[in-house]
DNA sequence: TCGGGACGAATGGTAGTACCATTGGTGTGC
DNA sequence: GCACACCAATGGTACTACCATTCGTCCCGA
């Protein structure tokens, strides 16, 4: 980014250089999905660096889901590119204090249009999967995990069948993060609503009715948004009622460590 | 993801645990932008792990732009959340072999709608920045870097003023990656086109004409897409012509290393 | 001949130490 | 008062050692 960067071994950090090398290897197609990489000791030898310097790179790649490591076995290149954004996106949400409404709002901007596209070009296989996810939700009863997984697969399939891979990746991650947030606050997915909307969306896609698919998807997300806000309101009310009764909130476990760090650093300054 | 995961120190990997801790610290607001963290030696002491185990975590955070490290100085929490997705997104594009058209297509799906929103709610400050970027492009002459930076700032400002932060972040990264791809293939940004479209978009936003802003943005991106494809076509033609003349392509430097790795691993199996 | 269990090599995970280059502040000498 | 030299602290890298886990192999017994 800064200077010429053409010559070998100019960037100061070995980590950056190694990551660059890995990128090259991936872009060349040398590293294919499922491919077993040499051991860390061999790799470090090959690159001419110590294992100490190599390991952080492997950690970075692992955290992005590019590779998977297993003790006693080895390192494999994972073919699933969708997981690359999962962790970083979580950090983004953390740093930006992104709310779940914002996630739904963002989905609302894109998914209806993608549903319309899906109605135009979805294949038989896609329709089959959609039908299966609906059946899965019907069979799930009150099992939230099953409902959520089926819900994710439903939307993910629509995203995929829309043809735009990048959007598919992006909003798959966003959707899952949204579900994680909801689970953290013990917010339930309304099975009946989900089922009804999914059926409507599925029908319009099956009939290749793009505009109706778009409208149904929009309605679905708007409804989900409303449910989310209502649940949050109810939760806030509950908390208020409880605090009025006098019972203080439960302790937070991680606070002490955080304060210790802050004091340490403050001492430095 | 697997089991209960409620108790302390259950997850096998220290790296994961430490990253989790850092996430907690960030979400608690203990770590604020610009904040100087304790030295690695102190931190490792504090967390009760060795520096060997801590360093990969710092590398991960650094690569996502969450922190910045300087030898002889220390580690600082960077407040800029937008850079979190930069590297991971590049890996995604690498693994998915995402093309520049796909990037523009994705922008095309979202940015027009955001431009419409921007027309409705942009502030005076936003308008000022937009006007400045246009002036910058006018003053840039044929300096591609200045044009690109001004172009980025123009679109970024519109994304920001639309109100949806997440979309802003996402498409800021996508836009920059697109520019990187174009620079890698030595594709120029057409200054005249850019200038004309930016002026049109700016005018419609200034006049709070949402539908026209949306249309202008759409035209802008469609035009950019066409230019991109045309340039690629020209490049392919040129390459073909050159190969017919008999001159072989230049050597690729990184191939030998790649092959060495592959042979090493193959030997293992 | 087949099956199971024990052993061992290889792998990633962690720890400790040492040294280097860079940085920023401190203090000394002009 | 200023400039220079010095020094302590920091992140960067390397080497070594050891641990827990995994997988394959070999040997023993049925």
Measured distance between first and last alpha carbons of chain A:
32 Å
Oligomer: homodimer
Give me the count of strands of chain A: 3
Secondary-structure-based class of chain A equals mainly alpha
Q: Roughly what fraction of the amino acids of chain A lie in strands?
A: under 5%
Described by strand count, sense and barrel closure, the largest sheet of chain A is:
3 strands, antiparallel
Q: Largest interface, and how many residues on either side?
A: A-B, 66 and 67 residues
Q: How do the strands of the widest beta sheet of chain A line up side by side?
A: 1-3-2
Mean pLDDT of chain A: 86
- What's the helix-strand series of chain A? HEHHEEHHHHHHHH
Low-pLDDT parts of chain A are 1-10, 249-269
Radius of gyration of chain A: 23 Å
**Globular, elongated, flat, extended or rod-shaped: what is the shape of chain A?**
globular
Percent in helix of chain A: over 70%
Number of helices of chain A: 11
């Amino acid at each position: 980014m800064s200077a010429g960067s053409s010559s070998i071994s100019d960037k100061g950090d070995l980590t950056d250089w190694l990551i660059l090398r890995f990128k090259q290897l991936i872009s060349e197609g040398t590293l294919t999905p499922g491919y077993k990489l040499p051991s860390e000791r061999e790799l470090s030898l090959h690159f001419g660096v110590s294992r100490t310097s190599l390991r952080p790179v492997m950690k970075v790649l692992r955290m992005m889901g590019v590779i998977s490591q297993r003790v006693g076995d080895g390192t494999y290149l994972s073919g699933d590119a969708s997981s690359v954004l999962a962790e970083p996106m979580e950090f983004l949400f953390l740093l930006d204090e992104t709310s779940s409404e914002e996630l739904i709002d963002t989905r609302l901007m894109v998914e209806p249009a993608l549903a319309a596209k899906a109605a135009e070009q979805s294949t038989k296989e896609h329709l089959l999967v959609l039908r299966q996810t609906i059946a899965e939700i019907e069979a799930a009863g009150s099992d939230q995990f099953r409902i959520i997984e089926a819900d994710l697969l439903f939307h993910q399939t629509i995203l995929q069948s829309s043809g735009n891979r990048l959007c598919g990746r992006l909003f798959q991650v966003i959707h899952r993060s949204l579900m994680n947030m909801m689970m953290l606050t013990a917010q339930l997915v309304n099975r009946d609503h989900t089922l009804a909307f999914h059926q409507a969306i599925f029908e319009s896609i099956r009939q290749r009715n793009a505009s109706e698919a778009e409208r149904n998807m929009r309605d679905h997300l708007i409804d989900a948004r409303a449910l989310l806000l209502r649940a949050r309101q109810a939760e806030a009310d509950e908390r208020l009622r409880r605090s009025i009764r006098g019972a203080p909130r439960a302790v937070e476990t991680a606070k002490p460590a955080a304060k210790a760090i802050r004091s340490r650093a403050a001492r430095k300054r």
